[in-house]
Amino acid sequence: MSSREKVVVGMSGGVDSSVAALLLKRAGYEVVGLFMKNWEDDDDDAYCSTRQDLIDCAAVADVIGIELEAVNFAAEYKERVFSAFLAEYQAGRTPNPDVLCNAEIKFKAFLDHALALGAARIATGHYAGVRCVGASVGENGAGVREGAVAGRFELLKAADKSKDQSYFLHRLSQAQLARAVFPLAQMQKTEVRRIAKEAGLPVHAKKDSTGICFIGERPFREFLNRYLPRTPGPIRTPEGRVIGEHVGLAFYTIGQRKGIGIGGVKDGGSEGEAWYVGAKDMAKNELIVVSGHDHPLLQKDSLRAAELSWISGSAPDAAPAYAAKTRYRQADAPCRISLPARGICEFIFDAPQWAVTPGQSAVLYQGEVCLGGGVIQ
Fold first, then answer.
1. 213 is catalytic
2. Which of 88, 190, 354, 375 could link 95 by a cystine bridge, Cβ 3.0 to 4.6 Å?
3. Which residue among 48, 57, 132, 213 is the active-site one?
4. Considering 101, 132, 335, 345, which one is annotated as catalytic?
5. Same domain, residue pair 81 and 48
6. Greater confidence, 344 or 270?
7. Is 211 among the domain residues?
8. 335 included as an active-site residue
9. How does pLDDT run across 115-143, given as a tens digit for each residue?
10. Is the separation of the CB atoms in 297 and 277 below 8 Å?
11. DSSP code of 250?
């Protein structure tokens, strides 16, 4: 790829995407920043940082010396991400909207827009890597592949394992990865902040955003209340003892400890043990709680995933030993897989996994390579 070709960088107003843009600019690419507005239901709300983020983006673009465009993907986001998010919660599952947002917005709507602008690639500030296998390609200092690109693409873990975001990117396709650049793949977060500070970027010390993008820092239950009906029902133990009332199964997740509302109930099991959400009985509208972090109901030796997405385009061989994550920031758990039916992958773990949660993603790895995954059933 010629260093004067255009790369469009998704800029959020944070330090990571800002440094990604800076590195590409320093490497000689024609860089355009693109700020995506994906939510507008309450962007004047105290919890929504969109306006400040855009101001920060503009300030960074000014320092780096690049164009910045703002584009509104709110309609696409509502249709492709938020509607699925609500449907999953209503069904009693706990979805991961960041996974869907990457596949449908950041690497689809954004990619289409960037290609229409004449870009050769898109870049983001994700901590992940991409490697082309089976083709003669070089890579420059900004992580952009150069030369013939005709091989197969692999999604890799980032060098900074504490920041690795390959989990959220496991639904990307070969076509999406072929156009993707991750300039921070080999960098530590401390180095990213140092580069930003030395370059005079005004966001060098800006706090990382956390949680789900459209919720911001607001209380989660308060947000869901606007969109989902409350359907109260009994809270019971696995033995059948009713010990309280829940506000609606959609408002709880497996493994949840705080906010259940039964802190004072005695005789829960082991002396002084906290209560955890262990299961949901959707048919009876019952929330099942267990006493103690290590209760058997919270331990699973295996799981089934559907809505499978494999980065290579086909399912991996069921024979080798793999590792998997059933939630972000979890250590890789050694496992093997089987493919018992079309569209289903079973993960069988060497050791029980805690609080495996329907709706979350089970993501499969082979060493540093992310193979893909599916939605826990």
1. yes
2. 88
3. 213
4. 101
5. yes
6. 344
7. no
8. no
9. 999 999 999 999 999 999 986 555 565 66
10. no
11. G
